[in-house]
């Protein structure tokens, strides 16, 4: 580990920030434009790196990583001037003569820690508003996707001076060292256990954090759902990136009357998307590491495969699988699956699903398929979750108008679009008082009254 580099990068970034170099809007705009151009310039290499580390197809690499990021840059560049403006607000009647103003200001030097599942996008999406809000930033990509990590280091070094944005590569040891540094803000995306470590480290220095974590996101399919469409949208959300998506539907809660029909449609959708032998399909992604692969293969024994169930030890691929006959106590129902295995549980009354979901930690996402507005209202009102969709999966993450984040164990804080800008900003409140008159009753010694100055 290059301790000297870690220390010197942070010191230089802090000095750069304290000189006010990142404050002017024109500088921030230029940083965003430089990032946009770099992504364009490196596009072919990014696609190749994502294929090398995760077996991602070009279509998936573009739609979920590169295109996603370019859209965030475009959206933010267009609006950041408005978001950065100080906002005048009313004051209370007791404050007559004064004015209030809320001034967004950058925190300073931000640390962004990224996971491996969307290793490009999840490192750079938070960076967009880190720099739009006027911060400097250190990125720590995941060591489990080493090709993307090395590429990010090169792309960033080629685009930004290290005192503006720098990449520190590495794993637990480097991240632990970074967490000892005097950052002004930490943005973490990853697992719940590491989220706790990050928050503990931040608490020692009272550094504000955003935690984008994971968990078990339920997918409820009610009796009246349009089953063929639901199946397509569930297969899309569950099996993209081989199920290694933080907001993938983790398990299915389906009304018992429509289970068989839904599973038939699901199997057909999987065949349509990935062919009859997904483990041999070069465009079907692989599991990131042998450790995760072995963990997932063990889950296959927790139920009966309705379809799928095949795995390839060499290619680290597991076929899209629906698991029936799963006990709610089985290991596959205890931890976030993060792979292409979908346990199927049934219910009779919607109230049962609400109780089952509420008995677990608050999920990052929830999906509900039903045409019934009453059921939609009931579930949304009675279950706390980070965000989600009615009659779709994943798509809530892809609109910059919706803040994205978790609640409870699935995270704290949110980002994307304006909420990202807010995440990377402190909102400084200033009261501008009049000196034309003074109200005497505020002072301990004075009699009531107004005194002109
Ligand atoms: P992880 O928590 O293992 O790793 C995330 C980052 O933390 C990596 O950069 C890693 O190097 C670092 N890290 C790992 N162990 C550490 C330790 N002991 N001390 C300090 N740093 C450490 O997560 P992951 O396996 O990369 O990603 C999968 C998890 O991330 C899943 O739980 C998933 O749901 C979650 N996730 C959440 C979102 C979201 O937006 N909410 C997005 C993607 C992934």
From TrEMBL:
PROSITE patterns: ALDEHYDE_DEHYDR_CYS, ALDEHYDE_DEHYDR_GLU. It comes from Paenibacillus mucilaginosus 3016. Residues 25-52 form a coiled coil. GO terms for biological process: aldehyde metabolic process. Belongs to the aldehyde dehydrogenase family. Residues 8-430 form the Aldehyde dehydrogenase domain. The lineage of its organism: Bacteria, Bacillati, Bacillota, Bacilli, Bacillales. Signal peptide: none annotated. Keywords: Coiled coil, NAD, Oxidoreductase. It holds the Pfam family Aldedh. GO terms for molecular function: aldehyde dehydrogenase (NAD+) activity. The active site is at 212, 246. It comes from the Bacteria. This is Aldehyde dehydrogenase. GO terms for cellular component: cytoplasm.
């Amino acid at each position: 580990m290059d301790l000297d580099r870690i220390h010197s990068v942070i010191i230089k970034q802090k000095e750069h920030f304290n000189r006010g170099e990142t404050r002017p809007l024109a500088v921030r705009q230029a940083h965003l434009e430089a990032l946009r151009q770099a992504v364009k310039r490196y596009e072919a290499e990014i696609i190749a790196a994502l294929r090398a580390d995760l077996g991602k197809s070009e279509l998936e690499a573009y739609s979920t990583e590169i295109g996603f990021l370019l859209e965030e840059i475009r959206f933010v560049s267009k609006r950041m001037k408005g978001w950065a403006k100080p906002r005048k607000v009313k004051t209370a009647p007791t404050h007559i003569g004064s004015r209030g103003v809320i001034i967004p200001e950058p925190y300073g030097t931000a640390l962004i820690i990224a996971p491996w599942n969307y290793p490009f996008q999840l490192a750079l999406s938070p960076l967009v508003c880190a720099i739009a809000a006027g911060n400097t930033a250190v990125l720590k990509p995941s060591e489990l996707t080493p090709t993307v990590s090395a590429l990010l280091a090169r792309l960033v070094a080629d685009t930004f001076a290290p005192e503006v944005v720098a990449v520190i590569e590495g794993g637990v040891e480097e991240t632990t060292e970074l967490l000892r540094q005097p950052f002004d803000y930490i943005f973490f995306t990853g697992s719940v256990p590491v989220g706790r470590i990050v928050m503990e480290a931040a608490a020692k220095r009272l550094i504000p954090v955003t935690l984008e974590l994971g968990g078990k996101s339920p997918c409820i399919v009610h009796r009246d759902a349009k089953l063929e469409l639901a199946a397509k949208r569930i297969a899309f959300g569950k099996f993209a990136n081989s199920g290694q998506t933080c907001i993938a539907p983790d398990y299915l809660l389906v009304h018992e009357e429509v289970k068989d029909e839904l599973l038939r449609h699901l199997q057909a959708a999987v065949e349509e998307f990935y062919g009859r032998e997904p483990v041999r399909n070069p465009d079907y992604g692989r599991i990131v590491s042998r450790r995760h692969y072995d963990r997932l293969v063990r889950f296959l024994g927790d139920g009966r495969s309705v379809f799928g169930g095949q795995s390839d030890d060499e290619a680290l691929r597991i076929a899209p699988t629906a698991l029936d006959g799963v006990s709610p106590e089985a290991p596959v129902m205890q931890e976030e699956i993060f792979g292409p295995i979908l346990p199927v549980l049934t219910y009779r009354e919607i109230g049962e699903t609400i109780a089952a979901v509420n008995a677990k930690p608050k999920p990052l996402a929830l999906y509900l398929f039903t045409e019934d507005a009453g059921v939609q209202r009931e579930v949304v009102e009675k279950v706390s979750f980070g965000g989600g969709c009615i009659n779709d999966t994943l798509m809530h993450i892809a609109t910059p108008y919706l803040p994205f984040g978790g609640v409870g164990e699935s995270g704290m804080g949110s980002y994307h679009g304006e909420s990202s800008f807010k995440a990377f900003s402190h909102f400084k409140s200033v009261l501008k008082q009049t000196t034309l008159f003074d109200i005497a009753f505020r002072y301990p010694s004075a009699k009531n009254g107004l005194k002109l100055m």
